[in-house]
Amino acid sequence: MTRYKLIVEYDGAGFVGWQRQDNGPSVQAAIEAAVHGFCGERVTAHAAGRTDAGVHALGMAVTLDLTRAAETDTLRDALNAHLRPAPVAVLSAEAVADDFHARFSATGRAYLYRMVNRRAPLVLDRGRAWWVPVPLDAEAMHAAAQVLIGKHDFTSFRASECQAKTPVKTLDDLTVARDGEVIAMTVRARSFLHNQVRILAGTLRLVGEGKWTRADLAAALNARDRAAAGPTAPPEGLYFLRATY
Amino acid sequence: MTRYKLIVEYDGAGFVGWQRQDNGPSVQAAIEAAVHGFCGERVTAHAAGRTDAGVHALGMAVTLDLTRAAETDTLRDALNAHLRPAPVAVLSAEAVADDFHARFSATGRAYLYRMVNRRAPLVLDRGRAWWVPVPLDAEAMHAAAQVLIGKHDFTSFRASECQAKTPVKTLDDLTVARDGEVIAMTVRARSFLHNQVRILAGTLRLVGEGKWTRADLAAALNARDRAAAGPTAPPEGLYFLRATY
Q1: Least CB-CB distance to B80: which of A90, A120, A126?
Q2: Active site positions of A, annotated
Q3: What does DSSP say about strands A108-117 and A130-132: parallel, antiparallel, or unpaired?
Q4: Would you tell me which CATH number, out of the four given (3.60.20.10, 3.30.450.40, 3.90.180.10, 3.30.70.660), belongs to the domain A108-244?
Q5: Could you tell me if A235 and A52 are in contact, meaning their C-beta atoms sit under 8 angstroms apart?
Q6: Per-residue pLDDT of chain B (245 residues; tens, 9 = 90+)
Q7: What is the ipTM of this complex?
Q8: Class of domain A2-96
Q9: How far apart are CA A14 and CA B96, in angstroms?
Q10: Residue of A76, A112, A123 to mutate, testing the B interface (most B Cβ within 10 Å of its Cβ)
Q11: pTM for the complete prediction?
């Protein structure tokens, strides 16, 4: 048996999410089917993050085991050939230790949330960002967001269906920066609660609009109540960037 | 009568091109229909560049005349509402002088050609760039391309169906730069021949692959023969950036 780590890019639009489900196509099933097409093996693919429906990945880490070893460039190219035309691509493949696990070995995860802040509807960024037609102050968003850094009870920023054992997480970094009409929010933590990044984005929008102050954001965090934070931003703006090990 | 200048973004994928044609939807017809939907007027929209099927625009300049004046923000928003769901958006609208013409008044045009240079097929950039899976040397492409700057007979870089009166054009700027896996070629000139930018991109790829030298590129230019240059790069990598007046 050889374990492989893949780095995978996908467009989440047509998928029910990373995880295999009965109600539609998943990225996991697409990759497992490509492996079967390539070598006939039935494998289970594990990802560093189980993204929701509509959420994209620029560099998802995935592990899977093959009974017969394959040359890594061949594996990458063959999986890409079998994945076609699904919007999933294997960027790289490498052999890793047998006890390395994409999910359980990860020591950090980074996400990007993209907003396009302009009056006109999205065209070339349609499905690739959250369209925010009202003016946002990205500097104010960044400054206020710093109250969230560190170890906190993030109950206010957690979906009601979240199955994590504890709402306490450590947010290592949250950066908001504008480049023209694009506002990028990047976040880093060991792990995140369900919908945490999207609720952070939806809440920081309120700061960007001038409706909320830094103190309001701190109060929302301290409330430990999902109703105290802002709305959940839509999935099409969210990208899994990378896992660190 | 009031003349308006619009700045328009569009995804060229579903269109036969800018210009109205019998064989499918055009950007021009979409905009003219939106104007009719907004105010009932039948107008002709003129663009700075008549892009081909599949070619995108980030900032196409368009002029059109309305019998009854409209507030420019209202015009922009109303056209966007009527354009939905077509992948066309009006970024801005302004009133201009009656003798201002998007095409004939333009003193410069800029295009971007995007290549994604990586082994894995495109996913999030699908339809937004030319996938080039073999390694390209962007610095060599930039250096060689400088032989094309200035006033030349560009017959070698002109589609056979080009209807321009003369093949002599002045290329003001051609820059090739890599940012990660993206190679961006930007070009500026008063005007271009039919397919000139795509033939430049297709030919510079040969330089990037190491198949052609700077001297080969100069020889292709001097040959004044379309067969002496490289292939025409696909439309999905090409973007009309802006016109200057």
Answers
A1: A120
A2: 52
A3: parallel
A4: 3.30.70.660
A5: yes
A6: 999 999 999 999 999 999 999 999 999 999 999 999 999 999 999 999 999 999 999 999 999 999 999 999 999 999 999 999 999 999 999 999 999 999 999 999 999 999 999 999 999 999 999 999 999 999 999 999 999 999 999 999 999 888 889 999 999 999 999 999 999 999 999 999 999 999 999 999 999 999 999 999 999 999 999 999 999 999 999 999 999 99
A7: 0.93
A8: alpha beta
A9: 43
A10: A123
A11: 0.95
